[in-house]
Write a structure and sequence with these properties.
- The protein starts with a helix and ends with a helix.
- It folds into two domains: 32-123, RNA Polymerase Alpha Subunit, Chain A, domain 2 (Beta Complex); 133-212, Beta Complex (RNA Polymerase Alpha Subunit, Chain A, domain 2), CATH 2.170.120.
- It is built from four helices and 18 strands.
- Helices cover 21% and strands 44% of the residues.
- By secondary structure, it is an alpha+beta fold.
Length: 228
């Protein structure tokens, strides 16, 4: 009987110790703080009619929170939202604050590096630009290629004023003449020289290439005979 009570006593003691260790670790996870630095992506709310030419895409954010919250942190859930000022061209300096950082509940921002960023902005301009077809390759031997035609011959583009105003023409994707013997027409995309310059409409054009077929052997002699 005494041996049985002693065994149960040891079991209860072991259970109590296990519960105590678990409770201590649980309290530590919830109450003891920890820090972690993550790379956060920066997104910009730009004013209507303006484009961003150059900007910082990421900053380092140091966060503090419970050990449990830091352990479960997904870096992709931390981001930076920047509201750009209205109507300003050129280089704009933005001082980042903790309010600009979006973080999961239970975490706080300790520091931001860099905490000052510079953004280059320019007014957006829209205008029509002439399209010139890009013709490559050689037709079949003896075939004669005339001047290609483009329909429509202009497209509407938009982009930073400094780039668009100097844009005299755009080209198409290559149109191949290889092996061609007769007139043909092909729909191709219009190419932009810079990602900041966008083709508004239309994004494709039709290129018609007039080709005079090669003269068949003996054909010229027969024609001359008929004329005589």
């Amino acid at each position: 009987m005494n041996e049985s009570l002693r065994t149960w006593g040891l079991r209860l003691l072991a259970l109590g110790l296990a519960i105590g260790i678990w409770f201590s670790a649980s309290v530590e996870d919830r109450l003891v703080s920890s820090e972690r630095q993550v790379e956060a992506s920066v997104s910009y709310n730009r004013p209507r009619g303006f484009l961003i030419l150059d900007s910082i895409r990421t900053v380092n954010v140091r966060l503090i929170g419970s050990k449990n919250a830091i352990r479960q942190l997904n870096p992709n859930t931390v981001s930076v939202q920047v509201d750009l000022p209205q109507g300003e061209e050129g280089t704009v300096t933005i001082n980042l604050s903790h309010d600009d950082i979006l973080v999961p509940p239970g975490l706080e921002v300790v520091s931001i590096e860099p905490n000052t960023i510079r953004v280059q902005m320019e007014q957006e301009v829209t205008q029509r630009v002439t399209v010139i077809p890009q013709i490559v390759g050689q037709p079949a031997r003896g075939a004669k290629v005339d001047e290609p035609e483009v329909f429509p011959n202009q497209v509407l583009v938009s982009g930073p004023g400094s780039m668009v105003k100097d844009l005299e023409s755009l080209t198409t994707r290559p149109v191949s003449l290889n092996g061609r013997t007769t007139t043909f027409e092909e729909t191709v995309a219009v190419l932009t020289p810079n990602p900041l310059i966008q083709i508004v409409q239309p994004t494709t054009v039709s290129v018609r290439v007039p080709i005079t077929p090669p003269q068949v052997a003996g054909e010229s002699g027969e024609i001359g005979k008929e004329e005589s």
